[in-house]
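User: I want to check something. If I give you two sequences, will you return the structure for each one separately, not as a complex?

Assistant: Yes, each is folded on its own. Here is the first sequence with its structure:
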Amino acid sequence: MQASKRIENLLGGGSDGWDVFNKARAMIASGIPVTELTIGEHDIRTAAPILQEMHRSAIDGHTGYASIPGVAALRDAVAARVSTMTGVPTARENVMITPGGQSALFAAHIAACDPGDRALYLDPYYATYPGTLRGASAEPVRVETRAEDAFQPRAEDIAAHAEGAASLLINTPNNPTGVVYSKRTLEGIAQVCRDHDLWLISDEVYDSQVWEGEHLSPRALPGMAERTLVVGSMSKSHAMTGSRCGWVIGPADVIGHLINLGTHTTYGVPGFIQDAAVFALGQGPGFEAEIAEPFRRRRALAQKVLAAQNAVALVPSQGAMYLMLDVRSTGMSGEDFALALLEKHHIAVMPGESFGQAAAGHLRVAMTIEDRAFEGALRTLCAFAESLI
């Protein structure tokens, strides 16, 4: 028997972009110490009070089937957070709770695209985006952004691919670049969506990690609330990556359809996890700022290190837990540089090519180890780059 073409073609016949990461993990498994600056995993664990609330809820019996759209208290809490942060009135009926942001991305594209529809996404992109679109039976269409624009998308480039498309996927603050899309950029994106009748799927899981400027949800722009689906998650804002609790925000009628999808796929999120998420959201924006603070601090350390050398350039680092470093001065591709750095210095970073061709010659560095080790690894990376010039 043969598997479906959809599942066999999930990666489009190419790599999933995680070759360097997998090699680093194999080295660690063989006993070789490696400094990992690869994945967006906090170096702190989920806060003890959140886990205690999760435990209390489970012991009290919230271990059976939970409400598929999400428990009312959590949908209300998410709606309140979104209303406060974006200025867009949001109610329970606009919220669907999902098993993490990745599930929300898939659900949003199922809602926006029919089989075979063209679905636009921006390059550089988070590694799962093209496979998610293929999994939803859409045709992924890459729209390249430019390093010389600090990876801010150009509306005219999106418009050039928009004829006949059904959706556009964006991510700000951005993974992998660390760029926060400007109001001008988002207004241009919104105009293209209105002109070409596109659904806008806005991945905003890093909305609590903004170091410069401010995060603007495109749902807040004129005429966009009715055509925008926002993806959110507890993973990054509350260090709850393993709890798998996310959401889709959108028009009430579409959320109703997504509830039907949940009934036939995930069948909801465990109730004790949802109760813990309600508790976590109840800690307010101060708690989210506390979770984000190590990345703000390490960004400042990185700026100091990078300012003292000329081999590696920093893409404007405005948000999220990553740095995008330009190593084209070495004459190496991002992948070759990352492999050489791993072999010689046992430091693992992600090549820009793992996130599309627009970031070729770049590296994504996750700011996810303690400050002194992070600073030392960056200094070693820069010295290695200087040795190649």
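And separately, the second sequence with its own structure:
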Amino acid sequence: MPHVLVIDDDSDSAETLAMLVATEGMTVATAGSLRDARRQIALQPPDLIFLDLVLPDGNGLELLEDTRSMPQTEVVLVTGHASLDTSIQALRRGAADYLVKPVAPQQLQKLISRISAPCPLQHEAQELEAKLEKEGHFGALWGRSPVMRRVYEQVMRVACTNVTVFVTGESGTGKEVVARTVHDLSRRRARPFLAVNCGAISPQLIESEIFGHEKGSFTGADRQHQGFFERASGGTLFLDEITEMPLDLQVKLLRVLETGTFMRVGSTTVQQTDVRLVAATNRDPMDAVKAGKLREDLFYRLNVFPIALSPLRERAEDIPLLAQHFLDQISKREGQRKQFAPAALQRLSAYKWPGNVRELRNMVCRAYVMATDTLIHDACLPGDPVQAAGVSDKPAVPSLTIQVGTALAEIERRVTLATLEHLGNHKEKTAAALGISLKTLYNRLKEYAALPDGTLANQTAVEEGH
């Protein structure tokens, strides 16, 4: 029978939580100080600890260091104030989750059910490592480079916790694949994984899409609608391009993260949520904060466990492996096996891949189609990889002079518009060159069009019909 230790100097709070735990069929003990807690742990090592941070003889964070020698023990922070700094510090030190007092019975039941479930990694870690060495992939993530091995290590450390993950990296580096891998290796794998691109939903609809709405709450709301938080219940919600979320909605998202509750649009009923959140952005998060695109308090709440993905150009040793993987996929799908000539792989490895893994995958698909026989050689590759290896007749890229002290938002605007003009108003190439998604580029151009000096943005928007 699982054993639980409740550590809280408030005896009433400790006894109430102990009674709730006992109803879940577990044995439970209580402690009112660090000293009492250490004595209880020595008498009977617990499977689960509910830990209050403010104790008479010290900070509960000290106990987290002690529990590192007990890998089978999970620690859940219980706080009466939802202190952002201390909660994040506890999660980074190894706490599996945190609850806010008073603890609701339903919320406790879900947490215990989730934490007591076996973590898939306990059974699959050796298999994943063997496939990495033999085949070159860790789940759906491919690559043997040191930077990718670091990502795999981070995924393995965080997957079985309920900690919020913040994935950063250029467009096309595989942020959603990382989120999916975290979900697939977690205790939530049997529940839904939902991915939401915050930049692809209209600002007028994004709140109702994420939190849901009641019938009649606004024009066109002819029925009740469950949002992503409800549909992902028990599972993982991936919020991509989080910096494109409207600031007023970021405030509501922060409240969900701190309290585990939300309300549908047009409702006064508080809903409990049990969702693991993974957020991502292709911007530098601190630049987004300075530019007013991301609330600073939300950034620190999301950035509990950061995972940074390197661009493909910084792990060039993975390019042949990735290219072969994509070629094997399309060969299987199309029913005809083709292979790369050595010179073609060399050309692919020489290219800088501004669109990263996504661009490489698309390039391999085009090369497969262009190959007239089973061998993919230099002539099958479109122009850019060839030009990257030195065969280029393009004029030199123009430079842009920016004065020291120019606001980051203004620098971003000038670089974006200058790149768009240099590339002949080609949106896809511009987005790839800037390392952002096409949707993000359109959003930026709409913003620039509203500025007094947004002539170029207005002009290009009209030319492209947007």
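Because they were folded independently, the notes below concern the second chain alone. The two ends are 62 Å apart (CA to CA). The chain has four domains: 3-116, 121-308, 315-388, 408-464.
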